[in-house]
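Q: Joint fold for the lines below.
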Amino acid sequence: MPTATKSTAKAADNTKAAPLTFQELLFRLQGFWAARGCVLQQPYDVEVGAGTMAPETFLRVLGPKPYRVGYAQPSRRPADGRYGENPNRLFKHTQFQLILKPPPVNVQELYLESLESIGIDLGQHDLKFEEDNWEWPAGGAWGVGWQVMLDGLEITQFTYFQQCGGLDLDPICAELTYGLERIAAFLQDVDSIYDIIWAIDPDTGAPVTYGDVRLQEELQFSVYNFEFADVPKLWEHFNMYEAEAQALLTQAGELLKNEESTATEKRRFPLLATYELALKCSHLFNLLDARGAISVTERVGVIGRIRNLVVGVAKAYALQQAA
Amino acid sequence: MSDFLLEIGLEEVPARMIASAEAELGRRVNDLLTRERLLGPAAGVTTYSTPRRLAVLVHDVLATQADTEEKLTGPSWKVAFKDDAPTAAAEAFAKKAGVAVSALEKVTTPKGEYVGTTFTRNGRAATELLATELPKEVLGIYWAKNMYWRAGKPERFVRPVRWLVAMLDAKVIDLEIAGIAAGNTSRGHRILHADHPVVLPLAKSYAETLRSAKVVVDVAERRQSIRKALDAATRTVPGARWREDEALVETVVHLTEWPTIILGEFEAEYLALPEEVLVTVMRDHQKYFAVEGADGKLAPHFLAVLNTQVDDAGRDIIRHGNARVLRARFKDARFFWDFDQKTPLAERVDSLKAVTFQKELGSYHWKTEGNLRVTQNLEAKLLSDYGVRFDPYRLKTAVRLAKTDLTTELVKEFTELQGIIGGLYARTQGLGEVVAQAIYDQYKPASTDDAIPSTIEGRVLGLADRIQTITAMFSIGNAPTGSKDPFALRRAANAIVKILAESGLPLTLGDVVDAGGAEGAAREQVAAFLRERLHFYLKDVRGYAYDVVNAVLAAGADDVRDAIARAEALTAVRGSDDFAAISAAFKRIKNILRQAEEKKFAIGSAKDAKLSAEAQQLDDAAAALAPEVASLRQIRSYNEALALIATLRPNVDTFFDEVMVLDSDEKLRGAHLGLIDGVLRNFSTIADFSEIVVS
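A: Joint structure:
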């Protein structure tokens, strides 16, 4: 019986245009939001676990300045790697991340339009906004919102950011995170992420799949993350990044609180670079975790060290913006 | 006679919060209208809600408050009138009250004579009152989690307010909440009505107008329609039934504005996975209802509740999409199941060192060792003191492996299945039924409604695990305080009481506390905590009257089953006249003994003096009954014992009618006190009757 159902569904879909490829999906979302006033940024080029951690979100949401930005963010979670063998799980997945600060009153309606723009006929699907609140303790960040469910599949995380770096946000912002692999697999009706069509050669019609593009990377990084990553070296890297970040934070603290320092001095202080060092620590922690190298007793302590850096940067950044 | 409507339009409110907020809105509006005297004689309040709105409709609201006559008191008469002529003070007061000086009267109070008057206060218009008062009521609604959304953070609410309807019949009430001005325009279903504005002609036509915009605002109606549609969809599978799940019905009722149902299928091969896993995936992760065949076993179908209505092609698409997600989740679960078998539970004990139980205490490995020690203590008590038969070797295995499923992939994925997965793995891995069932049941009862573990080994494991947790948490100062109980210790203690109450295990609360290993003041703290939970259990779970519970526990709170038997017997006799009299008499005895103590009167013995006939009769009767009652108590024949105690009534009544207990003669007084003290002692072993409230 499931087979019969499937063919009927296919038949229904066949009356419409071919589903978007992975890259077309990204183009459409980018185009949709660019047309609504969003700056399109490139992915942040330091390892992050989620689009939220990129400075375009984490730091831009601080302070009063309005901002609208969208970017695709490859998000690395070493412990989630499955050597490319699990059809639904990845070490690195792609989030299309959107920040609307402050959120327009019709933000939900805009979001639904964006779904229509990627070929989802909402009249033929079941859509629900189900409560799902978000929290990143190491970043002192949280918000309330929903997971958006389309025919039982979570396709987007929709969050009203309330706090970041332990600071209350005012204005708050809306953060929309589209899970691109999931949406593409849904649109293309494939059971494995690796079967997603990434692109189609316009001349030959030959498809390039997600597996063609990324399978090797999933395999090799799973091997590295779980088997090869050198634990003592990872610790060494962690300690060095932390030490430099901490030293910068100390200087930033003195500078930003000193009434004699000028606005120019304050504004040129490299907090963005400090934040990168903190992100490095966060990624190294994830690698150490995947290697099973962090004991229970250490765990809380290490997360606390990362939190000190990340929250420290956020607080300093807020002061710097006000300078 | 007008109808008042308020609708608050919101972005999707969390399903779990809607019902209580809807009720609170109704209560607040009702209280407000009552307080402001705006309810007519035929008034009725109806509330509505969907994920996107909370609404309240009130029939028979008065357009204006009735005028009221009010009395006002002013300066003293002597100041206001000199030689019967009004002074400036009288004139000022008359002006303030809005009456002529001639309307002032003399008011006599205990403090003296004053000037007073009666004036008419004009009633205010409902629209005006509602405009000022309603915003406060709405923004005062309690939400478990709030948010800010407007710049400057002027207010917090569960989700942003997007529109507002406030009407008295056809007229819009001019009010504003969170920057939104009220109107007569609601919104329809997001998709089915394209979220178009919906103009309401009249307050009272709210529900029907919204229905035409594809929104069923009545919660009970949605509930009923979902249940009917589930029945209808299931009927297409011969012999099948959907698994009743009230909590899930409530969730989907609050996730939909226009519910419909689809029946989907999954591959029968997944039925090889344990039913617990399949149901958890369907219910907790996908909010689907499971379907069972005529044999009661799961059938390869699921029911999804949609918040839309589509044609057949759309139904196929949605069914296909939902089945696709479910299949992927089942596939994951099967992968985890197979993967977990590579490392049997027995080889996972050491990995528990990496799973934190509580950061100040230690890991689950530490916890397991603690549980083993506690189990050994309980075991010694049960085997040698009470002669209960069970399998200590298998119990020990179960305790040792109980927490190992925390290291499995399947439990990491489905944390709500901890214990259950361990039990299933134990069975699969050939550890035997006793071990498997004990592990499987270890977290039962999860609530006061849940069943206790089905085997002795499971019960002992359940007791050991919880008393170990409570003792350890208390030792680092984590006892619950007020509404704060972050480690759910009350629930743990409730489970201990329930297991003791319902298992037939001969353990007392004291035995369990001792097995937990607390000593000295810490022991008393834990024991008091468990006694408090026994009180809760008797009163709130068993439903005994609070005075019965107090009376019973005052006579002993260690043996749970015994306390229940005494509460049962006391409840049965409590209403009788004889018993009411006995209770009153015991209260009186206590009072007299308290007075005697305050006055430092010595308590003697009934034999110290020559008693009056009435006192002697009571002494004789009590002396005759005491041994009988004691032996009945011994064999727990509480009904008989209480019936016997009730026969004391004539003697007690006569005694108090005729005898001056606190006689001026010291000897006689001491003898009387000795007599009633003896009565109190001998007959308060089943319950402290003085606690019984007599109307």
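Q: Anything notable?
A: The mean pLDDT of chain A is 93. The beta strands of chain A are 39-40, 67-76, 92-101, 127-131, 134-136, 141-150, 153-164, 167-179, 197-200, 207-209.
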